[in-house]
Amino acid sequence: MLRAVEKAGIFHGYLEDLFYTPKTQKAIADARRGALGKILWTRSREAHPGPHSDWFWDKEMAGGGAIIDLACHCIEIGRGYIGKDIRPLEVMCWADTQVKPIDAEDNAIGLVRYENGAISQFEVSWTFRGGLDLRDEVMGSEGTVWVNNFLRTGFEMYSSGKGNTYVAEKAESNNGWLFPVGDEVHELGYRHMFTDMLDSMDQDTVPEETFYDGYIVNAIMDAAYLSAQTKKWEPVMLEVWRGKTSVEKDDLFRDYDEQYYLIKEERTHYGTMKVILKNKLTGDIVEQEKPTGDT
Questions:
Q1: Minimal CA–CA distance to 75: which of 214, 243, 258, 202?
Q2: Where are the alpha helices (DSSP H) in the chain?
Q3: Is pLDDT of 167 > 60?
Q4: What does the alpha-carbon distance between residue 73 and residue 79 come to, in Å, rounded to a whole number?
Q5: Would residue 12 be called left, alpha or beta, if left means φ above 0 and alpha means ψ between -120 and 50 degrees?
Q6: Could you give the CA distance from residue 87 to residue 15 in angstroms, rounded to a whole number?
Q7: Each residue of 20-46: pLDDT tens digit?
Q8: What H or E segment, with its residue span, contains residue 83?
Q9: DSSP single-letter state for residue 69
Q10: Angle 72-82/211-230 helices, nearest 10 degrees?
Q11: Is 191 exposed, middle or buried (0-12, 13-18, 19+ CB in 10 A)?
């Protein structure tokens, strides 16, 4: 399908709405500018009580369960932080049908290992109680990001439920303490996504999310499904790869001086500074008080 679309020369895009949420767009832009240093680990979670329509629950019609429905979002968000030009190598995944009387998986957890040493984690569920949980965490060598897109965003409301009104996407109740969202279409990324797609179409440019991105995500999900069966790390099979090749893991060791690497520097509760060091020759780990005035 990818080759056919590109050969025909028609416009193509990957409608990955959760990649376009305002918070995710801002956080990924900051990460790409180096605010977090080298991205080491990402964790993306999407969990809710299950899809709206009947065909979602039919494994033959949908092609899978919670992984194909939800992990697609989580995987692409992780790629956005780590770098779309960094090759995903292999996947380890657990998936099971724990609650629902269906043939597909209703819960799954997976790890995607990238060529530069980064690891990306996804957690997906069709059995989460309490609404729509969309959260991301990113750890870099120089910083951290926590993103909560939907469930707990600073908007909380209590209701007796007498109004019998719609509260929020995937909300299971309209009474008690509730967590509405100010503008669901905006917060779920649809406005940014369609603006990018339609502007790109009008201006004959390439959108941020292309059919090729969708191809990479599907290859990762294929490896996840296979890993869930074999209980082993499974390679991501990519017939087409357009990113970097032969990427080596970055060396992030910090020199303290000619003799030691710096492991950690911290201020103690009694006011002094101390450092934990590793001897470059012997490998010994030592702790030293840092002289006052040192930088």
A1: 214
A2: 2-8, 22-32, 59-62, 66, 72-82, 184-187, 190-203, 211-230
A3: yes
A4: 10
A5: beta
A6: 21
A7: 999 999 999 999 999 999 999 999 999
A8: none
A9: I
A10: 110
A11: middle
